[in-house]
Amino acid sequence: MKWYQMDVDVVEQKLHVTTKQGLSDKQVDKRRRQDGENRLASEERTSRWLIFLKQFQDFMVLVLLAATLIAGMLGEYVDAIAIIIIVLVNGILGYFQEQRAEKSLDKLKEMAAPVATVLRDGTWQKVLSQDLVAGDVVRVSSGDRVPADIRVTQANHLETEESALTGESLPVMKHASPISKDQLEAQDQVNMGFMNTIVTRGNGTGIVVGTGMRTVMGQIASLMTQTKKTTTPLEHKLAELGKILIAVALLLTALVVLAGVYQGHSVYNMFLAGVSLAVAAIPEGLPAIVTVALSLGVQRMIKKKAIVRKLSAVETLGCASVICSDKTGTMTENKMTVKEVFLNHKTLDVTGEGYKAKGDIYLEQDKVDRNFPNLEQMFLYGMVCNNASLMVKKGHYYVDGDPTDGALLVAARKLDMSHQLQDNYRIIREMPFDSERKRMSVVVEDDNKMRFLITKGAPEVLLPRSAYVMNEHGRKQMQRDDQQSIERAIDNMAEKALRTLAIGMKPLAKNTPLDSVELENDLSFIGLYGMMDPPRQEVKSAIAESREAGIKSVMITGDHEKTARAIARELNLLPEDGMVLDGAQLNAMSIEELRDVIDQVYVFARVTPEHKLKIVEAFQEEGHIVAMTGDGVNDAPAIKASDIGISMGYSGTDVTKEASSLILMDDNFATIKSAIIEGRNIYENIRKFIRYLLASNVGEILVMLLAMLLAMPLPLVPVQILWVNLVTDGLPAMALGLDQPENDVTRRGPRNPKEGIFARGLGFQVISRGFLIGIAALTAFMMAFQGDPDQLIYAQTITFTTLVMAQLIHVFDCRSEHSIFARNPFENRFLVLAVLSSILLLLVVIYWSPLQPIFHTTALGVRDWVLVLGLSVIPSVLFGFSKK
Questions:
Q1: Could you say which of 155, 338, 609, 744 has the lowest number of CB atoms within 10 Å?
Q2: Among residues 532, 549, 565, which one ends one of the domains?
């Protein structure tokens, strides 16, 4: 007998669980040990040995190894062994860089993993989907991804989209009844939910009957494990740049070799020197360092509560010129609190803050209780037409569910109304809230078997559907003056930045068809809730800082235009001449008309998720790079269309998270601003080490080329060239990727996405510093050599040391777009440690006698160091004085 053929109680018995209690922690642990985690098999990873060997597949490295083999065969054992050791050390560093990048990406995948709402030991809680086991009772709602194969036990307009399994894109309506037919295909098992399918409408509960590879999706998992690693636009751009640099480096290296041979140097020596120079000069590690820099930046973002799902988003973040943000929960605390109640044509004040059930209700100065006409009924109906739960954890109250629903529960507690009162009403049918309907309704039956409908939602939706109004004397026909009184109350609440929610009811006969389109008409209007979601304290400063950084902040909300305007004023988001548009105005405007005024608009009120797509398109047509936030399934198209899609980590649906490139763990606007600044800094750090590596490489090639053209001896031997590359290119370049942002990064305008790598003078900085580094090293060689062959090793040591020190000083110059004197060199302790480590390695090969014959070095005296340091500082200090 298949799961879909069983009654719910049979499923419960087979899996030893009840839908009211769920599994115990003990049962969960036991089943997880037996069945493993709820995840699909993934493709096998490349072995560590293969990753290590891959570090040596570069053509120039293979040529160098072949050359060293020849050197060994010719008896040059010391040089051959030294070069092989250096190449091995370089390979090990590359291996660890790649491993670190992979681990960073794995960590991202873990943090972005979907969560499931599960009932355990009688309490609903959120856990990672991979932690589910067979028998778990789960709850799903619109926008969620079904976390495992489930047997549906309750369905409220529950529909799922199962194209991942069946290829059919139309949603499938689900129910909880058993199906007697045999051998049904998955698409016909309409009382089952399948792993990785998407809930497109409604909500429901179910019992997990299959996890991991034991799901229907698991059966076709082999088709889904072939993943293709994609590169970011920046990595692709740098790979293209790398090809050009390789060609230039090989050309210049060939020129060095030919010039050396022409000047009388042996072909063997020049070939080995040329290959060593090519290996050192070609920045083959640039893409790897970029990946590491991106992943390290991503880890910093994680600490700031932002998870980057796509590395390409890091590059785009620095270009963002507009942040379109939801108000509720992002700009506000998402702790909705009822502040006023309007009923019987009177306004009552409600005291108390947040989710603590402490507070009182007043009519002007007089405290009222539950005997106030219609008050108890209004609050009770708000509890019943409700999907939230009020929870306590470590003395702190929080809401599991929609914050608006939570606010109604808290308000009822202030009248000493227990949540257990809800048990007196049996819900027969639920019509869930969605952005199109703007209302939620339940059909309930009380202890006396009386049926009625409760509806809550936007006042402009409920008021036209209300034929009656409740007052002190009971129900009466809605009159024009009643409607005007309610509309005035809505306006008054909106002017106080209160969000309004209306509630009504309708008695039903037993034979009333529950699927009638007229079901929610002819309501009896009971009253209005006026709720406040206070602005987050840090958002005001974040908006000001964003404005200073050239980024426009835009509020998008479903609230009344007056409420939205009041909150925007409080946050200093809306300037005096700033425009506010509402949903009706948006509907009446074409994209072209919206585009003409979009730069003056700061607030969009009464909007639906469908409007968001129009807003994104209008901003993009005006040339903006748009960051768009969202949490619901209907937000996914706008998030996908935006340049930087941002989903809510706490309140966001799985579908929205999947469409996004950035997830906010704390749903906070200030986190978006921090992520954008971090994105700018990551890009600037990548520019820093490109500048550093290329300028160093230009210097190395230049000193060799000029020496050959001037018919001089080799200023550097091959092993020294490789050692320079090892000492200066590795740790210092990596440490630049960890540099803090410059003070003016937050004040610069957004970067143009079409900007080239060498924009803003980077090309000039590379050539000018590289030229001076080469000239300084050659000058050191000429001053030390003075035409005396006996001085050659001493002169090569001086040149070698000058080249290394010039590059290590230059690395501090690369920290600023302005001058080496613009920043405190000790700010980046990682860079200081990296430079000290490089100097130590330099000193070892100069002063440790066993290494001196290998590296062709000799000990230097104090006067020599004065010469070396004097020449080394010239490239960076000279331009430091010449710049503002």
A1: 744
A2: 532
Q: Which DSSP helix (H) or strand (E) runs through 860?
A: none
Same domain, 729 and 867: yes
Pairing of strands 474-477, 466-471: antiparallel
Which tokens is 636 given? Answer: 């996914």
- pTM higher than 0.85, yes or no? no
- The whole-number pLDDT of residue 350 equals 94
Pairing of strands 115-120, 123-128: antiparallel
- Exposed (0-12), middle (13-18) or buried (19+): which is 788, by Cβ within 10 Å? exposed
Write down the pLDDT at residue 224. 40
Pairing of strands 426-431, 466-471: unpaired
Task: Give residue 335's pLDDT.
Answer: 82
149 by DSSP, 3-state: which?
A: strand
Q: Are residues 588 and 483 in the same domain?
A: no
Task: Specify whether 742 is located in the same domain as 871.
Answer: yes
Q: Which active-site residues does the annotation give?
A: 326
Residue where a domain terminates, one of 667, 685, 700: 667
Q: Which of 794, 779, 774 is nearest to 870 (CA)?
A: 779
Give the pLDDT confidence score for residue 229 in this predicted structure: 46
**Residues spanned by the domain of 687:** 232-301+676-882
Residue 604 and residue 513 in one domain: no
For residue 884, what pLDDT is reported? 38
Residues 102/106/111/114 CA torsion (nearest 10 deg): 140
- The residue ranges of the chain whose pLDDT is under 50 are 108, 111-112, 223-230, 883-884
pLDDT tens figures, 149-190: 999 999 988 888 887 676 666 788 999 999 988 888 888 899
Residues paired with 210 in a beta bridge: 149
Could you write out the DSSP letters of every residue in 82-147? HHHHHHHHHHHHHHHHHHHHHHHHHHHHHHT--EEEEEETTEEEEEEGGG--TT-EEEEETTPBP-
Q: Are 39 and 233 in contact (CB under 8 A)?
A: no
